[in-house]
Amino acid sequence: MHVSNPFHCLTLSLLILPPLLITSYLLAAFPHPPAPVTVHKSLASLPADARSWAIYPEDFYTGGGYVSLPFGRVRYWLLGPEKGRKVVLIHGLSIPAMIWKNVAPQLAARGFRVLVYDLYGRGYSDAPQTIYDANLYTTQLALLMQHLRWDKALVAGVSMGGGIATAFTAQFPHLVDEKVVLLASAGLMEASDMSRTVKFMSSPLVQIMASTIPVQKYLQRLTNSTLSKTTAPFNEDDELPEARDKGDDQITEIVRLQSAHLTGYNAALSSSLRDGPIRGQAASFASEGFKKLKGVLVVHGTKDNTVHPRYAPLIFSLLPSTILPRSKLVTLEGAGHDVTISHGDEVVKEMVQFFES
Q1: Start-end of H helices in the chain
Q2: Which residues contact 80 (CB under 8 A, 6 or more apart)?
Q3: N or C: which end of the chain has fewer CB within 10 A?
Q4: Which GO terms describe its molecular function (predicted)?
Q5: pLDDT score, position 200
Q6: Which of 255, 213, 216 has its CA nearest to residue 232?
Q7: Pick the residue with more confidence: 276 or 239?
Q8: Lowest-pLDDT range, 44-53, 127-136, 184-193, 274-283?
Q9: Torsions phi, psi of 39, nearest 5?
Q10: pTM (2 decimals)?
């Protein structure tokens, strides 16, 4: 019978026991409390002589206010008569609430009570250092409506705002007043729709490098130099896909200023591209929340180079069959992505007819 050498047993014990003890300790140790979320400042933090104040001031719309929510301060505006039917307008990926400048005042003039606000990480809303997924955006809107004591509202979103409106309807159907409007809506985009430049710029490693002080200073000098010479729109290969279509120069300028001067802006965009509701919303379109609606208005331009026009009929096909007779698909011939800027009158006309039908 073979008898183990005591020295070998001791050696084996010394090799095995320490890792086991360390692993047991790590598994059993009580965790440290979570660190508070880092919140980066908004356009409100820029000096008074910053170009942004002339393009997109705090009082861009009337009836402005702030509310402090768990992930930072949120800027919002209320337009139109207090007793008007309530409608929420949700902007997209890179451009703050100024994207509604040709729509919100017109809806207010037609008797609607209009809520516009800046998403986290854009405009005058703070930029929390967190994951910018559908839950962050839908919770932001739900808490904002609670602050305003709004029981429910008509909901409209453009670009990524359409994806947010879709997720919001699926998650908080009791807060949606019967109808939803999706303009040049994201929600079903695929990775193949994004250029290699967009994918590269949205990677976490690139964002860490871009947030360093030397890179930020370089971007600021580059932006100031560029804006002093031209305000030409972005090209197809630019890293901000929502600014591809030709349009309002000030829209393009505010995108560049945010990118250069707001520490959390680029990270918010990159996380939204990776984790946000621009993709993966197929189940939301067919959810119980949409089944309870009285209709959905889908509007898309034929020349949209950001969210391909093929997604509009695809969205329509995913809607519950029970609401299709009262839903509508509108195609704007020759329109690009920023339909609220280039075709504001047509958008308002379709929205008002849809809301009042």
Answers
A1: 6-28, 51-55, 104-109, 134-148, 160-171, 196-201, 204-210, 213-229, 249-261, 265-275, 282-285, 288-291, 311-318, 339-342, 344-356
A2: 107, 108, 109, 111, 112, 113, 114
A3: N
A4: hydrolase activity
A5: 62
A6: 255
A7: 276
A8: 184-193
A9: -120, 120
A10: 0.84
